[in-house]
């Protein structure tokens, strides 16, 4: 079997209806996996599942899923007899000035981005333990663990916490051969990027990336497939930065 062959493997992707999540769903499905989509946007997820199923791929939508609700993680996994890969990609990050962050906004940000990691891992662990192992993957970010961005203090705090979770969970679950890793995307061309400004702003951001472009969702999916694959079987507790080299320059030179 090829190292990147996911035939006969069961994969769950949260936040899989669009953007990076859609690329993850397509990537795993085209590599042979049976993929389940969990997303709050139920209609979009169902349409994606129908489209990929019509192409001969094994994809299903789980229905509307709000990962801010702790019990939703267990409900997603109820009745499954196997689960090889969980990718927690769902995120909440409305652009909000620091002074305007409310308790409700902070609570939901931490619930979706960070707390859901705990509930998904707890729900998946018994299944993975019985089958001899598995892979937990989380979409983190360079925002928080490495950099800051105006209006995203709540998001940055949640993603810094995600990286701490990855290391701690990897240590505790290693004896069960459950690997825990993540990817830290830089600026990726997704619908969510629209929250950060117009096309001119996106072009300005891209001009500061050493590789000369914004990332594409497929760039993140490729990194995730690697971390979930047998090629990464000795990697756990790590995050892989995928940012086109944007974090390499301490001070950008004048144009």
Automatic annotation (TrEMBL):
Residues 9-191 form the Ketoreductase domain. The keyword NAD applies. InterPro entries: KR_dom (IPR057326), NAD(P)-bd_dom_sf (IPR036291), Sc_DH/Rdtase_CS (IPR020904), SDR_fam (IPR002347). Keywords: NAD, Oxidoreductase. The keyword ATP-binding does not apply. SUPFAM superfamilies: NAD(P)-binding Rossmann-fold domains. Belongs to the short-chain dehydrogenases/reductases (SDR) family. This is SDR family oxidoreductase. It comes from Pseudomonas benzopyrenica.
